[in-house]
Amino acid sequence: MQKLSVREARLESAIGQQARLQGWVRTRRDSKGGFSFIEINDGTCLANIQVIADAALPNYEDEVRHLTAGCSVTIDGEVKASGGKGQATELHAAAVTVHGLADPESYPLQKKRHSMEKLREWAHLRPRTNTFGAVMRVRNQVCRSVHDFFQEDGFLYLNTPIITASDCEGAGEMFRVTTLDPADPPRNDQGAVDYTQDFFDRPSFLTVSGQLEGEVYATALGKVYTFGPTFRAENSNTSRHLAEFWMVEPEVAFNDLEDNMDLAERFLKRVVTDVLENCEEDLDFFEQRIDKEVRERLGKIVAGGFARTTYTDAIAALESSGEAFEFPVSWGVDLQAEHERYLAEKLHGRPVIVHDYPATIKPFYMRVNDDGRTVRAMDVLAPGVGEIIGGSQREERLDVLESRMSEQGLNPDDYWWYLDLRRYGTVPHAGFGLGLERMVQFVTGMANIRDVIPFPRTPGNAEF
Amino acid sequence: MQKLSVREARLESAIGQQARLQGWVRTRRDSKGGFSFIEINDGTCLANIQVIADAALPNYEDEVRHLTAGCSVTIDGEVKASGGKGQATELHAAAVTVHGLADPESYPLQKKRHSMEKLREWAHLRPRTNTFGAVMRVRNQVCRSVHDFFQEDGFLYLNTPIITASDCEGAGEMFRVTTLDPADPPRNDQGAVDYTQDFFDRPSFLTVSGQLEGEVYATALGKVYTFGPTFRAENSNTSRHLAEFWMVEPEVAFNDLEDNMDLAERFLKRVVTDVLENCEEDLDFFEQRIDKEVRERLGKIVAGGFARTTYTDAIAALESSGEAFEFPVSWGVDLQAEHERYLAEKLHGRPVIVHDYPATIKPFYMRVNDDGRTVRAMDVLAPGVGEIIGGSQREERLDVLESRMSEQGLNPDDYWWYLDLRRYGTVPHAGFGLGLERMVQFVTGMANIRDVIPFPRTPGNAEF
Fold first, then answer.
1. Is residue A282 part of a domain?
2. What is the pLDDT of residue A384?
3. Given a cut of 60, is residue A380 above it in pLDDT?
4. Which of A102, A117, A251, B118 is the most buried if burial means most Cβ atoms within 10 Å?
5. Are residues B392 and B274 in the same domain?
6. Which residues are CB-neighbours of A52 under 8 A, at least 6 positions away?
7. From A157, A426, A453, residue closest to B140, measured CB to CB
């Protein structure tokens, strides 16, 4: 008997096939005519398939009529055309095998709707709901597009280290990684914790970014991208922050900021195009149940070119906008969410790339412009969400990089290997970072970032 | 001017094109005829392109004649047919721009060969060598094939958590993740470290496997695979162990052990086939410089079906082999490397899957057979390397799983969510794990696992 997924069995082309379907019961309804309708889902698509189980089945009274939400079944039967609404096919069961029951007295996922907060407590069961199945399929599509885009363009996938002894990248608070006994760590002569006895012989942490190591490989092999977990030990309980999240970071030798903006724009368009083309059913769901503007927002990404403006021009536009901003605007300040939204939503009505920011508000590794006071930074701001990509052309001049480090109070000795990239065969290069979960929020409309990652890690939460 | 990569410019089809090439100098040789030969590499392939730079170039004396290994250049010119050995094309330079020099007095990567140990100290420069460029391209191909294989087969890519509060999976020693001050951690009334004040309000660790969480998603959405970093805090200084490595773990609902073996075999064949087809030049290099048997070994993976044998039969074969093993063999012992190699290399002469191992030497989650003393485990043993994949059908029966936990001294309460998967709609399911770096060792012949990951983490090593 050929196995078919629910997605396959729902296609008209499956009509007439003898098939085996395996999945979980969503609902059962008994007809007075002596048969039952059972809705089965197997995760391959949002929709269920309707199974017609006749009373003549040998286990009809004992098992079929006791099926409830969450029970697992194998059904052998024939795919037939269906007269039902919203379905081309249905499965007429010749045999129903029940693998596992789900006691309706205790199984949490009953028909009533549960809050997202409640579902987070059941992170091991929530993928069985429509919402989280859809999130997972869209997340998978985004990940697949990320790899396809870069691979087709000749980028090499790079795994930068997760554990690092560099605690000095300045991107945020870090988690310590250790095998020392916290109750009684070894001490040195001065009474301080003796990290030379820790696993890596030194203080070690979870990475906040793979960029610096990405530059190592870009300046050897040309085009690389990372796609891995990164960490922030910040006590942020917001709908936009996770302690553990996945990041995509391309880095390209010989690219300048213009190339970098072009790459970011092509990349975003590709991911969104793939989601629009391949996740139609799930997008319908998000549009109806989660965020009615999701398709409109995605349409703006693929419709035309992104606007581009210097930070200096953006500040001027904000100053003359006549808007009453909560945070006042002037040259030198960082843009707040309200400013980003004004630029993307009101002023341009489409994604906008702001570039060439004041050096004082950006990290040491960004390339200094000839004016001496701006650097080749860029942020991609999307309507509805604000910043979605941040990147820059990197400083490739050894002397400028060293003085920027000193300005920011960093010790160049800690970066000897990073400086070597400028010492030996230095090249212009550029890259950017995209937070996967923020991208999934963007394409699904899910309000809380904890609901677009399988097992969210936030202050106080590391179960499962 | 159109940018071409070295790989593109080496194609015959590029002849006649005006092109811009960007990369790093490998060698320069000056001819008496008044021009120089410069070999350029950009990481897109193992081979260099030869550039002919004429003395008529305005910066010939000042710059071109000073180029040394590691210098970075942009070259505009015309691709012409080459009479040189091993190259169809060469580039005749119309302009040479030098971006960065690499002082031959201090640049470590001079023409002489360096030991692998030495190159590990220069992990930021080693990707500029032939060996590590080739490793990186092959590693990229393996990663790409992993994603392609599963995506084309309808699997969903799953990111299981890196930080976990489960310290009880029994797969190995774990790293602690903490934001407490190790010099002076908060204490509770009993004087013990008060982990309720740690970032996650409890002791937290780096994951050793995503399997249990993979089962959560497989038993909701059918077919999933993880591909992410995993960790072992073991003090193993061997050529086969890393503290941080990448693992691929598929998990499939409704699969039994037979299905699992079929999947593992198809998967390995696909990855190896892709490497053989797409990495020909790099494989030539590995065959000539690193391991002359590498192609033969890969041929055995794709040539025919894998052998399959029960553990019980394998033990019988080992006992009657007449071989003088260092570790004696009898039913109930775990197989040692020497046994695995005998089975794969001598007895079967091809990959062999050993299955149905004694319950006593396998973890609690593997499905118990009707004999009560074996479990549905499987290991794929490859000629030349031994175990490359380990997996099992999982125990889906709640009562059996609980008693296996008790047998192994585990507290079922710690696994409430894992047990819920059996409590509600349980299904047969199976999966396996493949260590990425061991796979890259297998397809390249690289002797030390530290040389197939960009920045290896081992006891005492976490720089870069």
1. yes
2. 85
3. yes
4. A251
5. yes
6. A35, A36, A37, A90, A91, A92, A93
7. A157
Contacts of A244 in chain B (CB under 8 A): 161-163
> Is the predicted pLDDT of residue A65 greater than 70, yes or no?
yes
State pTM to two decimals. Answer: 0.98
Mean pLDDT of A210-236: 97
Residue A414 token pair:
């800690």
Q: Are A52 and A84 in contact (CB under 8 A)?
A: no
CB contact under 8 A, B427 and A159: no
Q: Give me the CATH number covering residue A43.
A: 2.40.50.140
pLDDT the model gives residue A168: 55
Average pLDDT, chain A: 96
pLDDT at site B406:
93
Cβ–Cβ < 8 Å for B405, B412: yes
Which domain, by its residues, includes A66?
2-100
Rounded Cα gap, residues A362 and A375, in angstroms: 8
| B201, B228, B459 ranked by CB distance to A229: nearest | B228
A300 and A157 belong to one structural domain: yes
Does residue B157 share a domain with residue B39? no
Q: What is the mean pLDDT of residues A18-43?
A: 96
Confidence band of A443 (pLDDT split at 50, 70, 90): very high
pLDDT at A170: 58
In this structure, are A144 and A87 located in the same domain? no
- Kindly provide the ipTM of the predicted complex, given to two decimals: 0.97
Contact B124 A157 (CB under 8 A): no
B289 alpha-carbon distance from chain centroid: 20
**d(C-alpha A375, C-alpha A359), whole Å:** 5
Give A459's contacts in chain B (Cβ within 8 Å): 199-201
Is A28 part of a structural domain of the chain? Answer: yes
Distance CA B189, CA B192 (A): 8
- Chain B positions touching A435 (Cβ under 8 A) are none
- Which of the 8 DSSP states describes residue A342? I
Residue A359 lies in a domain: yes
Contact yes or no for A68/A104 (Cβ under 8 A): yes
pLDDT for position A355:
98
- For residue range A136-156, list pLDDT tens digits in order: 999 999 999 999 999 999 999
Q: Quick check: A229 and B253 CB within 8 A?
A: no
Same structural domain, B84 and B132: no
- Residues (pLDDT < 50) of chain B are none
Do B134 and B284 meet the contact criterion of CB atoms below 8 Å apart? no
**Tokens 């005519």 label which residue?**
A33
Name the pLDDT band for A166 (thresholds 50, 70, 90): confident
Residues pairing with A77 in the sheet: A19, A93
> Is there a single domain that holds both residue A273 and residue A362?
yes
Q: Which residues of B touch A176 (CB under 8 A)?
A: 177-179, 182
B231 Cα to chain A: minimum distance (Å) = 10
Whether residue B124 and residue A417 make contact (CB cut-off 8 A), yes or no, is yes
Tokens, residue B245: 């490595």
Measured CA to CA in angstroms, residue A162 lies from A204, A219, A288 at distances of: 10, 21, 39
User: Would the CB atoms of B424 and A125 count as touching at under 8 Å?
Assistant: yes
The token pair at B280 is: 């020909």
Which whole-number Å values give the CA distances from A411 to A167, A403, A406, A407, B415, in the listed order? 12, 10, 7, 10, 46
Checking if the pLDDT of A70 tops 90, the result is yes
Q: Do B78 and B160 have their domain in common?
A: no
Q: Report the alpha-carbon angle B14-B17-B22, nearest 5.
A: 85
The answer as to whether B191 is a domain residue is no
Q: In chain B, pLDDT over 70 holds for what percent of residues?
A: 99
* For residues A292-314, average pLDDT: 96
Q: In total, how many domains does chain B have?
A: 2
